[in-house]
Amino acid sequence: MSRHLGFAFLLVACLALSLGVASASPAAVDSGPSDPVRDVSIVDVVPENRSELTGVHTVEAGSTLLVRGATNRRDDRTAIDVTVTDGPDADRIGFATVDSWGFDGVWTARLPIPADVTPGTYTLRVQTDSETDYQEFEVVAEKRATLTVRSAAADAVVVDATLPDGGYVELHDGDTVVGTSSYLAPGAHERITVPVDGAPTTLTAVAVVGTPDRRLDPYTVDGVTVSAPVRVTTPTATATVTPTASPTPTSTPTATPSPSPSSTAASGPGFAPLAALVALLIAGFRLCRRR
Fold first, then answer.
1. How far is 278 from 271, CA to CA, in rounded Å?
2. CATH number of the domain where residue 70 is located
3. Domain extent for 106
4. Does some domain include residue 5?
5. Domain boundary pick from 84, 107, 140
6. Global pTM?
7. Disordered: where is this region (predicted)?
8. Which residues in 25-183 belong to E strands, given as ranges?
9. Can you give the CATH number for the domain in which 170 is found?
10. I need a surface site. Which of 111, 112, 121, 169 has the fewest CB within 10 A?
């Protein structure tokens, strides 16, 4: 009897132990099919001059398309081909091949967009030897930035600017920025005063893409930076007129009349004999009359 009770006790203990282990084990959760790790993917499609953006954004004709993505492949074993496969002028945009990236797997590619490309929806394709990813994006007509210098002085420059995406106006002295406007919202602006730092003599005003807290790259039109030369006018010092001393009048001496020569009785050695001769003739004439 005791043998049967011991066996029953052992059976109950084993059963309890198995139930405890089963309850301690987490139940398997059916999460459905998991996404496989992709060899390559597109992350960002943005204009190069607005590289701080993320996600997919419109790109202007005449700009450069910046593509960022990720891969789990090693760059010494594969390359990534980036091309535009569909769109009104897809065959004119060209392609790029990426053959190096960092350990984080982040890669970048740049595709120039022709200035006269037809606006519309385009399809971007990235491809390795084993996988492909696609992303649509929009190309819009080029929004041209403009810049005109109204006036310039040694301490400030006044400009008119049209900045389609907002930004700033910078003053460059060679490669050095010597003046920056306050942030300008997208649109046209008149009489923007840009202070000048220092005393440069040769300046260039440059339209720059930017956000309220960051300056980015210059605006371009047909691949050329939107800028305007600045001619600084230095005020000309007014010469002090020195009064000319008036000459002191010099008194004109009064002419002293020369004394008129007075008549002087004739005298001299030749006159006495003549007088004596005349006297003799008169005396002789009187003597003859008496006889």
1. 11
2. 2.60.40.1930
3. 40-140
4. no
5. 140
6. 0.54
7. 235-267
8. 40-47, 59-60, 64-71, 80-86, 95-98, 106-112, 120-127, 132-140, 146-152, 156-163, 167-173, 176-180
9. 2.60.40
10. 121
